[in-house]
């Protein structure tokens, strides 16, 4: 009991439960034996993480993703009261809204160590008053935090340039990413490749380009559709597989753009087994306009799949250009189409870059590497 009381108390705060499960679960598992961990999240039904292999208290606090002044104020009061009562040694947040509320509450409650993780900036593609407002919120988070983690080196450089964070206060775990990749789960899988292709009616000889993620305009999904349609005007041996929840009625728009090659475009809604669809593909495509790191790129890389991505911060860390994939200028459909065509006509390039990609992930981006880096980071505090 005495040893239990001597453990440092750490509180992880997230807006929604998937942020804990996707980004922080393996860190919490590894840290739980050494630290006294509590999780705070807006998930009343998430009463336990035991089913996922970790036994820590989960406290529900209503943190809304959208702006709601009264509810945000209530959440701020609740968090401040919790932090004053529990006297955590560290409060550690992820995501913009939970970061703003948690870092503010931790500051005013006197928590000594306050850590926030930046995983991308919504305002990077905005302009005018909206950009200034959202960037101002990130500046408040950084001001109230004592330590900042950023999930890619180029994103950290961007935040320093924008005067959101300082170089002294901010760090990157290992070479990027928050959680790394489970290289056992994400790995070459001939059985999954065969099963998925059979279900979709795709022959083994045909090249599959995969988009995996939320279907949103700023993910470049319409650019990808336009580039694919352009390529398919002259090449008929390829397919576009789009996997993820449709948040902005993208499916109808993509279908319209690809009306001349509609039978070559396949849609799958949200899936709990993304690794199977990655294994079925030949090339991953992420023509995003903003990205903190591009986690899906290294997940595909772990499966031996090369990528095409836009030349923006975050993605330039996930793809080693000319080695593990190809980069195109953001928003340039002809450039994206050219990269698609390069991979279609050069199977040896796909194989070589896929092998390089997996080797790089195993060396630099495995879950074990990132968990070890997080443990070392906490030791340094």
Q: Please, could you describe this protein's structure?
A:
It contains 15 helices and 13 strands. Helix 3 (69-86) packs across helix 4 (96-109) and helix 8 (221-232) packs across helix 13. The chain is an alpha/beta fold and 381 residues long. Helix 12 links the parallel strand 12 and strand 13 (325-328). It has two domains: 2-180 and 367-380, Glycogen Phosphorylase B (Rossmann fold, 3-Layer(aba) Sandwich), CATH 3.40.50; 190-364, Rossmann fold (3-Layer(aba) Sandwich).
Helix and strand content put the structural class at alpha/beta
Strand order of the largest sheet: 3-2-1-4-5-6-7
Determine the CATH superfamily of the largest domain: Glycogen Phosphorylase B
CATH topology descriptor of the largest domain:
Rossmann fold
CATH architecture title of the largest domain: 3-Layer(aba) Sandwich
Distance between the first and last residues' Cα: 24 Å
| Rg over alpha carbons | 21 Å
Q: Number of folding domains?
A: 2
Write the element-wise H/E pattern from the N-terminal end onward: HEHEEHEHEHEHEHEHEHEHEHEHEHHH
Which CATH first-tier class of the largest domain would you pick? Answer: Alpha Beta
The total beta strand count reads 13
State the shape. globular
Q: How would you state the average pLDDT, rounded?
A: 95
Q: Major sheet: size, sense and barrel closure? A: 7 strands, parallel
State the helix count: 15
Strand content: 15-25%
Poorly predicted regions are: none
Helix content: 40-55%
